[in-house]
Each structure stands twice: as structure tokens, then as C-alpha cells.
Amino acid sequence: MSHGGNNKLEKHYWVWPIAIYLFLGGLGGGTLFVAGIFDILYGAQIPQFGSIFALGVFFGVVFLGVGSFLLVFELGQPLVFLRVFLSGTAILKYGASLLILAMGFALIYSVFYLPAEWNLFYYGWTWLRQLCCVCMMVAGLGVCVYTGVFLASMKAKAFWNTPALPVLFTVSAISTASAFLAAIAGAWPMPAELALPAAGAAIESHALVEPLVENLHFIDSILVIAEIIVLLVYVLMMRAAGNTTAKAVALKWIQGGYALLFWGGMIFCGLLVPFLCYQIGGAAATFVAPVLVLAAGLLLRFMVVFSDQRRAIPGEERFYARLPKGNERFLKGWSKPY
Amino acid sequence: MTRYAMVMDQSRCIGCQSCTVACRTWNELPIDIIYNPVVSEGVQGEFPNVHQTFTPLICMHCDNPPCTICCPCKASQQDEDGIVWVEASKCMACKACVNSCPYGARDLSAYDEFLHSYVRKCNFCKDRVREGEQPYCVATCHQKARIFGDLDDPDSEVSQLINKYKVERIFPELGTDPQVYYIPDLGGVR
């Protein structure tokens, strides 16, 4: 799947499935990471604390699963997919491994929080839950970082080949995950009361959720500001110090075809407005901010994936510009399948 | 040891695209795949002091190829003689190599069979080369602008040309160590 006709310089080899995959990978991985951190911080005092984010973790697995499906769907020969683990040097191999580990550990972790009345035998295996919690947290963070490293390792792509991209993607991933977890915290299967270690003691679970959501809003406020800074530094550095191709792409973001999406969509609607919503609180923070933050995360992945220009060899632009256009249907009918 | 490399003598290339057509014919390439275009920035200068330089392109068969490093399936591989090639049956077409190649030497055809699309690239006609013949583009070039040979053999024509002339490589600053050398039309020693 690629867009752009015969002109190799204009062709996008990775398109919408990869953009969505990168977004869902970041969101899913970030969800596991943030939920894992909270469980480690509070799980010792309140053993069932993880149930507050259990549905979020389960959705994290679903996001990673859908992302992985899109990654395979986008392949030219999907049946060869199992060879992905063969090379020791490919970033993609490590990404695929991290995705599988994150999904596996998170699935086991979330199963521990199924309703107590189901009487599943493994409720007492706290060590396994804690092990899964740590593993899913590490693998989740790994997936977040990997989505950026994956693109940044592409030597030919002037706008991607920078260490700033993994930083941007990681901040965005954890920001979207915090927004998502704040929106879904306290949903089923959280019980009405969470037992405390002292015999017979319990705490009303909804009393915990509210300050927790406020904490998440505060964390996301900081992440949103951090994302604005990283994003501006990334794009402006590309404009100031990139090679000619990177400069041209950065210019497209700042004042060209992507300017409205960048300034209006991402910076203003996707980051500044959610920050204000978090400060206002109430329905704005609960309903508006998460939607905008998630939309900005998706928009960021789309804009980056489609900013894949390669530095042209002198004369290449002229060569490809002179190739015939608009004859794709004829050629398709005329060509035998190779 | 053998290390295959190619020298492009731009002072000899007239931009006839014979190599391009020969390659497509020999390798039976789909209509949308070009391994070795000959590009030019057009006529430069002001009459009567005008000139046009042609740059024959091809996979650079780099010594440090980013395309093989990023291939998770080990479909993109480099042989001991330096030839970089793709084993189609092992390629899942994730396009990581296409996106990592700074020379645009890799591509996929839109006309491949559904679910059987793979990455294609020049392999220096390795089957011909290992039988002692020249790559088809080299054998076709009537201007002798493409010169192919073993860089580890000091008596080979490529070794002697590279030692004799001030040769250039494309994007050497990227650290890929490309093994296609250009004798520039203008600004060179001859």
C-alpha cells in the first residue's frame, strides 16, 4: 500500500495504517506504563488498587492488538510475517517482540481484576500480578519509545532521522495514555469497596477515583506543555538546522500546507485548549480534554508519517517529474501480474 | 576476497537510457519499476557556454547498507562480495528498507499479485557476474560509461580508475559507504 504514483520522491510508502498503528502503539503502551506506575505506587497500601485502571489496561491490550493487526495488514506479503523475529539488528523485530510481551503481560494482569464473585483460582497469586505489572510497565514504555525510534532510524528520511522524534512520540504517548486513563478510571470491574491490608478494613473506591483523576489531569497538563515545547523545538530546529529537505518539510509545517493543522489543530486545539480545560476542571476536563488530546496524538502521527520526504539526488526531481502521469489504469490493465 | 563496485564515468555518459531499458528487459521488471535511471539537471550555463551532465543511478551496494540492517526478516542481505540483494520469498514487504535507503534504490510494484508484493532492487546481475559476465547495464553501455569490477583486485579497471581520478560518491556523509564511484564530467581531473 503506497500513495504517489511513479514519482518515487512523492511516493508515501507508509500511509494511514502505519500512522494509526504508531498512535495506537503509543496510546496502548503508554496506558500500560501509567497504569503500572500507579499500581506500584499504591498497590502495597491498597491491594486491589489496580482494579481502578483494569479496564484501561484491557483497552491498552486492545489498542496494541488493533495496531499490530494494522501493521500486518499493511504488509505486502503478510504470510511472511513470522520471519519478523529473525534479525538481531532490526528495530522492527524489537518492536514486534515488545508489542507481544506488553499484550501478554497486560492481558494476564487485567484478568486478575475480573469480579471477585467469579471466584477464579488465581486471585491469591499476588506475586504473578506484581510480576506482570512490572513487565507490562517496562514493555509498555518500550513500545512508546520504539514507535519513535522506528521512524527515527530511517536514515533516508530527513524529517524523521533525529533523536527528537522518539522524545516527542514518547511524551505524546504518555500524555494520550494519561488522558485516556483519566477518562476510564473507576469503570467496571472496580468493586464498590477496596479492601485494605488490615483485617476487615475497606475504603470506598469512588473516594479514591476522584483525587486520582485530578492527579492524572495535573500530570497530563504538564505533559501537554512538555509536548508543546518538544514539538516546537523539533520543528523549529528542523527549520533552522536541518538539511534542505528537512527545512522544506519544516517550512510546510510552519507556514505551508500543514500550517493550519500544525498551529490550529495540534498546538491550539490539541494541546493548548486541553491544558486550559484541565485548569477549568469539571466537564471540560472530564470530557473535552481527553478527546482533544487523543485527536492531537493521532494527528501528530499522521502528519509525521506523511512528512517522509527523501533528499533528492541532483536531477532526480526532473527525471520523475517527466514520467507520464494519469495512465495508471491503462498500465494496470496492460501489465501481467509479476 | 572480492568486492564488487561500479564506476560511472560521467564524461562519457550521453543520457541515452540504454542501461535503463536493458536492465528492465533483462530483469523483466514491472512497468513501474526502474533500477537504474539516468538523471540530469538539464542544460546548465548560458549559450554558447552550455553543458549537460548525466548521472546514471543504481543501488550503491553500500559497505554499510542501512537497508539490510533494518530488515527484520533477513530478506535483504549482503553477500561477501558486497552485493546487496533481496530474497523475494523471505520479504514481507514492511518497506523499512525502502524508507531507509537514501538513494531511492528500492521499490515495490503496484502490479504484483495481491498478497505477493515484495521489495525489488538491483542485485548487480549477480547471476551473470558469478558466471564471469558483466551486469547487463554495463554490457549494454556503448559509451563504456559504466565500468564494473572487483575493487580488491588492484589490476581491475575499477581499481585503476578510482586510483587515477578524483572520484565522487553520493551522500557519503550519511556513513553508508556507497560503492558506486562517479568520475565527474566537470570539475574532475581530466
Write a brief structural summary.
The complex is a heterodimer of chains A (338) and B (190). Chain A contains eleven helices and two strands.
Task: Provide structural commentary.
The complex is a heterodimer of chains A (338) and B (190). Chain A is mainly alpha-helical. Helices cover 66% and strands 2% of the residues of chain A. Chain A has a two-stranded antiparallel ribbon with strand order 1-2. Helix content of chain B is 18%, strand content 19%. Classes of the chains: A mainly alpha (338), B alpha+beta (190). The interface between A and B is large, with 47 and 52 residues.
Helix and strand arrangement:
The complex is a heterodimer of chains A (338) and B (190).
Chain A: H1 16-42, H2 54-73, H3 91-111, H4 126-152, H5 164-184, E1 193-195, E2 202-204, H6 205-241, H7 244-255, H8 259-280, H9 282-305, H10 316-321, H11 328-334
Antiparallel strand pairs in A: 1-2
Helix pairs in contact in A: 1-2, 1-4, 1-5, 1-9, 2-3, 3-4, 4-5, 5-6, 5-9, 6-7, 6-8, 7-8, 8-9
Chain B: E1 4-9, H1 18-26, E2 38-40, E3 44-46, E4 49-51, E5 54-56, H2 66-69, E6 76-78, E7 84-86, H3 96-100, E8 107-108, E9 119-120, H4 126-129, H5 136-140, E10 146-150, H6 157-164, E11 180-183
Parallel strand pairs in B: 1-11
Antiparallel strand pairs in B: 1-10, 2-5, 3-4, 6-7, 8-9
What's the assembly state of these chains? heterodimer
| Element-level helix/strand string of chain A | HHHHHEEHHHHHH
Low-confidence stretches of chain A: none
N-end to C-end Cα span of chain B: 31 Å
| Average of pLDDT of chain A | 91
Helix segment tally of chain A: 11
Stretches of chain B where pLDDT falls below 50 for ≥5 residues? Answer: none
**Order of strands side by side in the largest beta sheet of chain B?**
10-1-11
Query: What is the strand tally of chain B?
Result: 11
- Sheet bearing the most strands of chain B, described? 3 strands, mixed
Given the C-alpha coordinates, what overall shape of chain A results? Answer: globular
Distance between the termini of chain A: 16 Å
Helix content estimate of chain A = 55-70%
- Nearest-angstrom radius of gyration of chain B? 17 Å
**What average pLDDT do the residues of chain B reach?**
93
Structural class of chain B: alpha+beta
| Main structural class of chain A | mainly alpha
Secondary-structure element pattern of chain B, one letter each: EHEEEEHEEHEEHHEHE
Proportion of beta-strand residues of chain A: under 5%
